[in-house]
Amino acid sequence: xxxxxxxxxxxxxLVAAALCAAxxxxxxxxxxxxxxxxxxxxxxxxxxxxxxxxxxxxxDYVVVDALASWTLVCTALVYCLASIxxxxxxxxxxxxxERLPNFYALFALFAATMIFGPIMNNxxxxxxxxxxxxxxxxxLVGFERGREAIEAAWKYIIVVSAGISLALLGTVLFYWAGxxxxxxxxxxxxxxxxxxxxxxxxxxxxxxxxxxxxxYGTKAGLAPMHTWLPDAHSExxxxxxxxxxxxxxxxxxxGIARFLTITDAANSSLLxxxxxxxxxxxxxxxxxxxxxxxxxxxxxxxxxxxxxxGVLALGFGFGxxxxxxxxxxxxxxxxxxKSLMFFGAGNVMRVFGTKDMGEIRNVWTRFPVTGALxxxxxxxxxxxxxxxxxxxxxTLMRAGMASSNAWAVIVMLLLLIVIFIGFxxxxxxxxxxxxxxxxxxxxxxxxxxxxxxxxxxxxALVPVLVLGVWWPQDLWRFFEMVAADLGGVxx
Amino acid sequence: xxLAHLSPLAASLFSxxxxxxxxxxxxxxxxxxxxxxLLAFMVESWLIAALSGAVxxxxxxxxxxxxxILTALFRGLVLPYLIWRIIVRLKVERxxxxxxQPSSSIVLGAxxxxxxxxxxxxxxxxxxxxxxxxxxxxxxxxxxxxxxFLMLAVRHEAISQVLGLLILENGIFxxxxxxxxxxxxxxxxxxxxxxxxxxxxxxxxxxxxxEHVGSTSSRELTRxxx
Lengths: 491, 226
What we know:
By secondary structure, chain A is an all-alpha fold. Chain A has 19 helices and two strands. In chain B, 78% of the residues lie in helices and 0% in strands.
């Protein structure tokens, strides 16, 4: 059952990608990708319902456990929403019409690589999967071929490849540490390393973990390794930005969480967890600075992603069942909410013909309905009630107070308030401030926002609202299962 | 563990090959010509291939012979050929603007090697491998890593940056041959393939850079800030 579902979930985007590349017809590609994304959501949800203890197959190369299936749910949901949105959004780019099949082929391939990563049981293959996500998404970031887009793509591939090579070094050192315990040749799965961990040398384990943390932290967008993130998120087409932010970053965070279990097993988790918490707090700090001063609309959203990855890092750093539950809840809420924000930003950007927030005014008169949706999303993403992120951030702070890094909770609270004010101030200006006389309003009347571009916004906002007022009991049980796998608090 | 009791001949052969690779990384730091970088990278890959073979011979890891052949073929011939084709098409022969003169970067590189040695020596002593070839392997691995980052930081040309990344990879590969010769072969094969994909991706991107930015120097990539 689980085996079939896993094959379906990885296979359907691959088939869609092959179909898009083969038939070279824009409409066929659109729908092939869309259907694949729906299949992915269904498969991911039923996988999450059926998952028990980690299920391993293909000679132990694949593991489907609760954590992996949760990440897959987040990824598949974002993939599906972004695919719906892409249909409307990419049709607006009239000059790219011939290249649309390429776009969808890459898009589906990108989704496949992101689904592939979390279920890898071998730490070497996991590294390769993460590297593949970079290679595929580079071409999506640079898809519009403008000067800025190529610049962003180049910075993205260089910074992330360099960063992630540190993770490879850490992986080799982990393998070496294990080989001193088990013997020269073994399958480097998460479980084997976890079992060998108590006998591993603590100095070596800690160094390996720090390398891995910096490496995958680059990919996850933790400050100060986040430098590629605002560029890539702002220059890619809006559906790609949503995928990068809502799905890709989680896949890399998952690796950090799994490596943490190894250092936990090695009884040397205090330093790793404190460093992770410090990275998280610093990410919030950097995000707060840049959000307050920001001018680009999509860069604003990108820095908000840095902020939320910081929150996830804090949660994994705190450790313990409550923090794990909060982190996973936050992951889902952030994925949905950030997709909504990027979709709204894409709509506004297309209609106003600019990314500069200084030139975007009177959003409300231009979009009465989706404008309200977007504003609600903005309130939600800053962590205000009654939305899901409020609940998850609150739970996370509660968990943090009990951990050994309680100082970080205070920092988090202060920075979240700064971000709340800074972020919503931009929205106040865009919605309620009058047009400055110097900027001529050149609203692009020809661009019409189709239902393809508004329906996914509804689909994203409604769950975030529901999750904000009702935390289902079944989810608690699910999170307990993950927490049992990850466990661990700083010692 | 293989490394704890090596014959002196094997130990010195490993050391020679590892130090040779490190020296070639310095050749790259000390030159401004892209062709020199490429040549140094190529020879470095051959040395690493020889190292794989030597480790395979002295440690009885016969699958390493295959790795050695593939390394020589892919890292030593195919990748340099692909990069050479990009260089020829670009008509850029050397770094035009240097932040750091080659001489200063060599000095800086030496300091980085020193740092790498201090870290590896500490780690080697903690593990009870003090004074063996393990410390050397760790030192070379970390120094090539740091030198690769130095190249990424002080060089502007797209090709230099790609080669900087490849040195990072080479460093890890070299270290892993000595430290973990028993690493499953599948992983190493996939890594080689991955490297090929990376270089092809870079080739495509460099073409886009030329087409849409009109230059392959990262000095021109200054539009996105803040």
